[in-house]
Amino acid sequence: MSIKKLTGAEWFAEFGKKLERHGRLRIDAAKLELSEQIFQAMENQALSEAELARRLGVSRAYVNKMLQGATNFTIETLVKIGIALNAEFKFEFVIKTEEKAVETNMLDVEIVYVEKRPRSRNAREDVLQK
């Protein structure tokens, strides 16, 4: 039985294939993508980590961990983050062809901003405006 000695590049390529087969790269990429979108939403609204933490009822350290991509988000948490950012969390599975799957191995996830209208005193007016 002979053992093939791999070069550094070959070993790295094999390791990457193993990670991809187990979905690890996709998971980490999705976490980072969500973290980046949260950060961008905070930046667009000039919202500090402390203020987001207050709105979510969590510690500032937890918000920092979220922004570093080190959080395994639940759907409940993502919806709460959306509410705190005045945004709607939109999750969508997109079936990809094999060709596209090779190009991008990420879930399509995005946070959509929802513009809220000030509520009038007359609830009937609100319904008619929609």
Task: Please render the helix and strand layout as text.
Elements: H1 8-21, H2 24-44, H3 49-56, H4 60-67, H5 75-84, E1 87-91, H6 98-103, E2 109-113, H7 123-129
Antiparallel strand pairs: 1-2
- The CATH superfamily turns out to be lambda repressor-like DNA-binding domains
- The total number of structural domains is 1
Radius of gyration: 21 Å
> Which CATH class?
Mainly Alpha
The string of secondary-structure elements, in order, is: HHHHHEHEH
Beta-sheet strand percentage?
Answer: 5-15%
Shape: elongated
Question: Numbering strands along the chain, what is their spatial order in the largest sheet?
Answer: 1-2
Which fold name corresponds to the CATH topology? 434 Repressor (Amino-terminal Domain)
Q: What is the CATH architecture term? A: Orthogonal Bundle
Total number of beta strands: 2
Q: Helicity level, as a percent range?
A: 55-70%
Q: State the helix count.
A: 7
Biggest pleated-sheet summary: 2 strands, antiparallel
Arithmetic mean of pLDDT: 79
Describe this structure in a few short sentences.
It contains 7 helices and 2 strands, in the order αααααβαβα. The chain starts with 7 loop residues before the first helix and ends with a helix.
